[in-house]
Design a protein that fits this description.
Length: 704
């Protein structure tokens, strides 16, 4: 790789410090946290970077596998596929599916929709060279996202890399093929093609097959004035069956057998099948001390998405976006400084989206009430397929977001530096629909809908950050920051509760970062106050209800360390302490408002940690990682805890010789059966979603 792309080689849990012959330290760099290249220990916030070696050694095919050992980050998949629940410092907890409250970007292009929803169907992890994770509100990159930013940096068409082919096979009928070829058309023109195909049956439980086909074509040109343009065209077809949750008794049986079949859940045939065509173009040109970085992107997608109660079928969805960024280098206090600014515009438009009743169900006739109030309904016992039935809903929607951002990064002297940033965004929802019928959770049947409806809301979102770093020594920096941001409710949340307000997140943080030849560690202490946080409440049938929680208080400590015992042996680990509580929250329970003041926020464990060791010698390599997720409350009332899980272990062993590489990766080495998510509703009904048992894959790759 060229030097300008090798600066991504930093990982918060596994930072490989590179020393020169004089034993000086080559600073690890971040290029996205402040939109300019800066050493990670000079960034005035908590940031983690997953490098390419880690991605390859762990054979990471899903985003959650890359993030699950970063302190303060919860990345769990309930489907053993690229469909994770992603939480950063408590943000993202409310997501019904997909990812909310967290900004996901790829090469500076937002993958997150204006109303903060992200689908990871877009991402081909085999084209990703590194991942940066910024935690907490106030990032200059974050739009309508108080949880933080995940930036994926893909393999640039300008990278001087070899062509490669990779083949993988594993249990549960796992299959993986990846091909990357790169060509130099002329002295100034470059192109590359990446093709990936994956498949997994997950036969240990019902309705959990997954397959995806992805292709990415890139073209880059270097102009005579050294300005560059890089274009990317990608296509994804993803087919994912989403397994049902389990009752308490069914989960007990799963813990004995590791199998999940014939559960009592009504909705046995949930799925998300998607087709996505995306294009992006980014240009970079220097004019004196100013660098211009305009970006344009467009994607069109369709999906078939059977969920609880209804089947979503939408085939006319388009996203347009422009980001006009500039970097202006200048002097301040006789030191080099950088001013970063820009304008952003994005529109997400959906025409004639439809929802259908399930057309193939098992029902039973149930009579309720007395006298004149006596009614009979055909309750849905269980779906038999995801065949579409009667049309239930039609909808057109347009979500518009536009804004501006500005950041000044400067130093007062060689030791003391500052980052000051602010952005303001306007978010508008315009939704029109016709609800013909809807699923009624109390009767477990369909009933007449409300007819025509309209949602026309807008929110002004403010975000700001002030951070400072001070060099205690040549190798250790201390930092402090204060940041705040707004989070708007989503369209689905507004449909459930049109009175929802935006939340306000304010974060105070101090930390310590050290980088030496053999030792690297990061320590962060933070307190995050959230006013009007939007919290998800579930009723007995899994219906999600949203409410502004009043106030929550999140205190936390995060620590990670890496140490090179020898030039071949590396050890490390991470720890996160999370004390997240409701300061003020009245929950609706069986028609009454019940105070949850002082209760812990569910699903977030107080203690979470991981450890790892890695060994490399003459082509031989091995890596062992274990992670523990502490106990947590399953409901807002704090009536019951799930025990979490201990030391889920992943193992890799492999050998590299010249252009050949063969390795075996085993996730959940000791085949432990546990829940990736456990919850309890206001009717005391418990629900469990199983994590994957042992998965093994043998991979061979060849570079040519």
């Amino acid at each position: 790789m060229k030097l300008r792309y090798s600066v991504f080689a930093c990982l918060a849990l596994n930072i490989n410090i590179i020393a020169s012959e004089q034993a000086t330290v080559l600073e690890q760099m971040s290029v996205t946290a402040t939109k300019i290249e800066k050493a990670t220990k000079d960034v005035s916030e908590s940031i983690a970077v997953v490098d390419q070696k880690t991605i390859e050694d762990k054979n990471i095919l899903n985003v959650q596998d890359a993030l699950q050992t970063i302190p303060g980050v919860i990345a769990e998949s309930t489907s053993n596929s690229p469909s994770p629940k992603l939480i950063i410092r408590g943000a993202g907890l409310k997501a019904r599916f997909g990812v909310r409250e967290i900004m996901v970007m790829k090469d500076g292009v937002p993958m997150t929709d204006p109303d903060s929803f992200t689908r990871f169907d877009f991402i081909d992890m085999q084209d990703v060279s590194s991942i940066e994770v910024q935690k907490g509100p106030g990032s200059i990159n974050a739009v309508n996202s108080t949880g933080g930013v995940i930036q994926l940096i893909t393999k640039s068409v300008f990278d001087e890399d070899k062509n490669s082919i990779k083949l993988g096979v594993g249990n549960e009928e796992q299959r993986n093929v990846n091909l990357k070829v790169r060509g130099k058309i002329s002295e100034n023109d470059f192109t590359s093609l990446t093709f990936s195909k994956r498949k997994i049956d997950n036969s240990w439980r019902d309705n959990n097959e997954f397959d995806t086909t992805q292709a990415t074509l890139k073209y880059g040109h270097i102009f005579k004035d050294d300005s560059i343009i890089e274009n990317e065209l990608s296509y994804t077809e993803s087919n994912l069956n989403l397994p049902a949750s389990m009752t308490k008794d069914e989960f007990k049986e799963f813990k004995k057998s590791g199998e999940q079949h014939d559960t009592s859940n009504q909705w046995q045939h949930s799925a998300r099948d998607s087709k996505i065509l995306a294009f992006s173009s980014k240009y970079e040109k220097e004019v004196g001390d100013i660098t211009y970085k305009p970006r344009f992107y467009f994607n069109t997608w369709e999906h078939f998405h059977p969920v609880t109660g209804l089947i979503n079928d939408s085939d006319d969805n388009k996203v347009f976006g422009i980001d006009l960024e500039f970097n202006a280098a200048h002097k301040l206090f006789d030191q080099d400084a950088m001013l970063v600014g820009g304008l952003t515009f994005k529109i997400d438009k959906t025409d004639d989206s439809k929802k259908y009743q399930y057309g193939d169900v098992e029902t039973k006739s149930v009579t309720t009430g007395w006298g004149r109030n006596r009614t009979t309904a055909n309750q849905i016992v269980k779906t038999l397929s995801n065949k579409k039935g009667a049309l239930a809903n039609t909808e057109d929607s347009e979500t518009l977001l536009y804004g501006a951002y500005l950041m000044e990064s400067f130093k007062v002297n060689d030791k003391l530096g500052f980052d000051v940033s602010s952005r303001v965004d306007k978010l508008k929802f315009d939704i029109n629909g016709n609800e013909i019928t809807k699923y009624d959770y109390s009767s477990k049947s369909y009933k007449d809908g409300i007819g025509d409806y309209e949602i026309d809301n807008s929110f002004t979102l403010l975000s700001a950050k002030f951070g400072t770093t001070y060099a205690l020594t040549d190798f250790t920096n201390v930092y402090a920051s204060i940041a705040n941001a707004n989070q708007a409710p989503t369209t689905s949340e507004l449909s459930d509760n049109n009175d929802l307000d935006k939340s306000q997140s304010t974060n105070y943080e101090v930390g310590l970062k050290t980088r030496t030849e053999d030792l690297s560690y990061d320590l962060a202490l933070y307190q995050n106050y959230v006013d009007d946080e939007i919290i998800q409440i579930k009723d007995a049938n899994g219906n999600s209800i949203y409410d502004n929680a009043g106030k929550t208080d999140k205190k936390g400590l995060e620590f990670n360390i890496t140490y090179n015992l020898t030039s071949n042996l590396e050890i490390g680990g991470s720890y996160a302490y999370s004390n997240f509580k409701f300061d003020k929250f009245n929950e609706s329970a069986r028609g009454d408002l019940v105070s949850r003041d002082g209760n812990y926020i569910p699903f977030i464990p107080k203690n979470q940690y991981s450890i790892f060791t890695a060994y490399n010698l003459n082509g031989f390599k091995t890596r062992l990682t274990a992670r523990t997720y502490g106990s947590y409350y399953m409901d807002n009332a704090n009536t019951e805890k799930y025990e979490g899980y201990d030391l889920i272990t992943d193992f890799m062993i492999g050998y590299e010789m010249k252009n050949h590489n063969i390795q075996l990766n085993i996730n959940n080495l000791f085949d432990k059966y546990y829940a990736s998510e456990a919850s309890k509703d206001v009717y005391n009904v418990e629900s469990y979603k199983a994590a994957s048992p042992r998965m093994a894959m043998l991979t061979y790759s060849y570079k040519f």
